[in-house]
Amino acid sequence: MSTELDALLGQKWRKPPLVKRAWLRWALGIGFTAYLIAAFMTIDVNWSRVYEGLDRGAAFILAFTSPDFVSRASDIWDGILESIIMTVAASVVGIVISIPIGLGAARNIAPLPVYLVCRGIVAISRALQEIIVAILLVAIFGFGPLAGFLTLSFATIGFLSKLLAEDIESMDRVQAEAIKASGARWLQWINYGVQPQVMPRLVGLSMYRIDINFRESAILGLVGAGGIGATLNTAFDRYEYDTAAAILIIIILIVMALEYLSGIIRAKVQ
Amino acid sequence: MLRLKKLVKTYKTGDQALKAVDLEIPQGQVLALIGPSGAGKSTMIRCINRLVEPSSGEVWLEDTELTGLSSGGLRRKRREMGMIFQEYALVERLTVMENVLSGRLGYVGFWRSFTRRYPQESVDEAFRLLDRVGLLAMADKRADELSGGQRQRVGICRALIQNPKLLLVDEPTASLDPKTSRQIMRLICELCEERGLAAIINIHDVALAKMFVQRVVGLRFGAIEFDGRPEELTPDVLTTIYGEEDWEATIEKVDDEDDEQSDTSLGKAAEVAAL
């Protein structure tokens, strides 16, 4: 037995700490706790206002027990239809545009200049929040679903291109290399070597994005970009919580249906 | 047929994987490339069809110099070099038939390949090859449903349907059991003989290499240390290639016909060679 081993036997063993310097470790811990306490102290709650608001909250929740689908039926129907049209159109356009951008934004298949341009597009699209884009586009194109459609397409590009590019970057290189070795041209290489590897993820992400787009279309109505959100906003403004509840229930049902559909589709393409 | 002249590959990290390698392979010769891990075997094979760009030197395939080719010219020449990979490198989500037909990609246009409408003679040839390796029934299975040996046979079909003049084979038996390894090596060598193909087989298993090939080249630190017939591989030679080790188990004569008994000795030899 070696002397180093002898020295170690019988000693307790602990996992080495993440931060090696003891003073730094303690300083970080104390600093974080102090910040947390200070942050909580700055939260200003007006308890009497909360007490009054409870009634309104209760009215809102109670409205779900008696949702009113009927009295504004034609408004709700128009709004839902507009939202669905916006969602489908924006998702299709967004997905079609984001596939080439996603290919360009994957470092392992795109040359550097293309990569930088595509990553730039992705970064801009992701940096601008939907509502801000919608306000800008409403200012340009006026109230209505066109602004909402363009906003959702733009947001889809940032979301899908980025995640698609990352999936391409983590694919199995050798499978793609084998296709290249056969003398395939670039498009054939993408079609045989890359696409089969990323297809399930692309389909799953696309379904998820359709889901997001539908929910976003309900929000975009608040800034005048069309869809069910406009109807919802009006209902809130008139304190018609039963109509608002009906709209929310319809949104929830549609999102659940989309979730179910996406489960079926993803199981098919696996 | 294939000539390498002063082929050098230096990676960005500064590692010199190949140091001015010269090699000439005549028509129809099957050559085994042996050497320790990191000796540059995979790099050398990949420099020939430029999956890895050589730093300098020349690669001649018949009368064409490959390192100076444009991307279009390179694609046309890649069609003449079939490649078989370690761990098979099949596209796992495609069917066996699509994998085999992907070997024809260099010959068909994008739309034909995209819509999977290959010319009838390609389809017939794919069926003939699958039948030759005993996988005809598997044609419409997905590649990830196959066992290791079956996958490698699909890999062989994919390389052969290119109608190549040269096969580049990278560790074909690395993840296979000893018996399947032999079957795969035998299949590759038989097919090369049937079609008069030259081949470079990059292989760890020295005993297995000696059983099937006419010529062995030993690579160490990116330079050729040995070039000769398999019988000339003595313990001294193996020591110059791999370093000090007891080589008796590796070079003892193994009888090819007696699979039962020799599989065990082969397993041992594989162990030794893998060190």
What would your notes on this structure say?
- The complex is a heterodimer of chains A (270) and B (275).
- In chain A, 79% of the residues lie in helices and 0% in strands.
- With 270 residues, chain A is mostly helical.
- In chain A, helix 4 (73-104) packs antiparallel against helix 9.
- The model of chain A has no long low-confidence stretch (mean pLDDT 90).
- Chain B is an alpha/beta fold and 275 residues long.
- Chain B is 39% helix and 21% strand.
- Chain B contains 11 helices and 10 strands.
- Chain A binds chain B through residues 174-175, 177-185, 187-189, 191-193, 196-197, 199-200, and chain B through 49, 51, 75-79, 81, 83, 85-87, 89-94, 98, 102-107, 110, 113-114, 155, 158, 162, 168.
Tell me the series of helices and strands of chain B, N- to C-terminal.
EEEHEEHEHHHHEHEHEEHHH
Name the overall outline of chain B. Answer: globular
Order of helices and strands of chain A: HHHHHHHHHHH
Give the strand content of chain A: under 5%
Number of helices of chain B: 11
**Net shape of chain A:** extended
User: Largest chain interface and its two residue counts?
Assistant: A-B, 21 and 32 residues
Q: What is the overall number of helices of chain A?
A: 11
The number of distinct β-strands of chain B equals 10
> What kind of sheet is the major sheet of chain B?
6 strands, mixed
Described by strand count, sense and barrel closure, the largest sheet of chain A is:
none
Mean pLDDT of chain A: 90
* Distance between the first and last residues' Cα of chain B: 33 Å
Distance between the termini of chain A: 55 Å
Protein structure class of chain B: alpha/beta
Note poorly predicted spans of chain B. 256-275
Q: How many β strands of chain A by DSSP?
A: 0
